[in-house]
Design brief:
The protein has ten helices and four strands. By secondary structure, it is an alpha+beta fold. The chain has two domains: 188 residues, no CATH class; 73 residues, Alpha-Beta Plaits. It has a four-stranded antiparallel beta sheet, with helices on one face. Helix 1 packs antiparallel against helix 5, helix 2 runs antiparallel to helix 3 and helix 9 packs antiparallel against helix 10.
Length: 311
């Protein structure tokens, strides 16, 4: 026995390093919070702008011209025709059950944004005067009123919400049956046109169709970035291209070997389903790795299985 203990002395961790690690972690945590907060603020600003644009289109072009809007706004106009209360009031009341439906089927974020948009739109419809703006020509009011209304609705939809009404039903249909938003709304609006023809006359019904068509086409343009496409890539660098697509776009790919019909060279074929908004980035990724790659883009109406839809 030499009187020395065999117990090892464990040095405490370097406090400076420990503090630096937690500061480093906290910095990125705060940065993520700041990014999320900025995104929410931008979303809310876009919703305010979108609802103002729609309210102007309705109160200053569509309604004073004696036209009907689509969806619940049109139904609110029907009720307003018999009961002289603001369209905004009826619009809010009619949307209450649909807000519950949205919460159950379409998620919390969509429901909250939709509720905010409904309150704002109802308020703007109540506050803004119903008077003609820019033109008293009915067909111009139908075209530009429908276009402005589509722009307003599209802005809100792109930020993850909706203005309620048929936007909610259309999104449910689009989510579960892969039907575009504009087309789903148009199908439901046919009933409104038929009823308007009986109550307000055939001419108003025809002008209403023009307005609805303008809204639908505007929808399609604003939301075209989420249309699905299938991409076939024939390349000599299959693994590299696949890895780059997975890393940058977070899209899956399917690969198989192929032989050129003319050159008989061995190639790799990649198959990927993405959306139009990501197509330019995907092409740049492919060209950067293999400038001679052959890329074919095919419009895709329906996807069954795991597919991350950005809208």
């Amino acid at each position: 026995m030499n009187g020395k203990s065999n117990t090892k002395i464990v040095k405490p961790p370097n406090n400076d390093l420990h503090i630096y690690y937690h500061s480093y972690k906290g910095y990125f945590h705060m940065e993520n919070i700041n990014k999320k907060s900025t995104s929410i603020v931008l979303d809310l600003l876009a919703i305010i702008v979108g609802t103002i644009v729609s309210a102007v289109a309705l109160n200053m072009l569509i309604i004073p011209s004696g036209l009907l809007s689509g969806g619940l706004t049109g139904i609110a106009q029907f009720i307003h025709h018999f009961f002289p209360v603001s369209v905004g009031v009826f619009y809010f009341v009619l949307n209450i059950p649909l807000m519950v439906l949205a919460y159950k089927l379409l998620g919390t974020k969509f429901s909250i944004y939709t509720m905010i948009a409904i309150i704002l739109l109802s308020g703007f419809l109540y506050l803004l005067p119903v008077q003609q703006l820019w033109t008293d020509n009915t067909i111009l009011a139908a075209i530009f009123g429908g276009t402005l209304n589509g722009i307003g609705c599209g802005i809100v939809l792109r930020r993850g919400g909706s203005q309620g009404g048929l936007d909610i039903l259309s999104r449910i249909i689009s989510k579960y049956h892969n039907v575009s938003i504009g087309k789903a709304s148009l199908v439901v609006n046919i009933l409104i046109v038929i009823v308007s023809g009986f109550i307000f006359g055939s001419e108003i019904a025809l002008f209403t169709i023009i307005s609805m068509f303008a809204t639908m086409k505007t929808y399609e343009i604003i939301l075209s970035h989420v249309n699905r496409v299938s991409v076939l890539i024939i390349t000599n660098s299959g693994e590299e291209v696949s890895h780059a697509i997975n890393s940058n776009l977070h899209r899956g790919t399917t690969m198989w070997d192929a032989t050129g019909g003319y050159t008989h060279d061995q190639k790799t074929v990649l198959f990927c389903v993405t959306v139009v908004g990501e197509l330019t980035t995907l092409k740049k990724i492919v060209r950067k790795i293999d400038s001679h790659a052959f890329v074919s883009v095919i419009s895709t109406q329906n996807v069954i299985g795991r597919f991350h839809q950005i809208w």
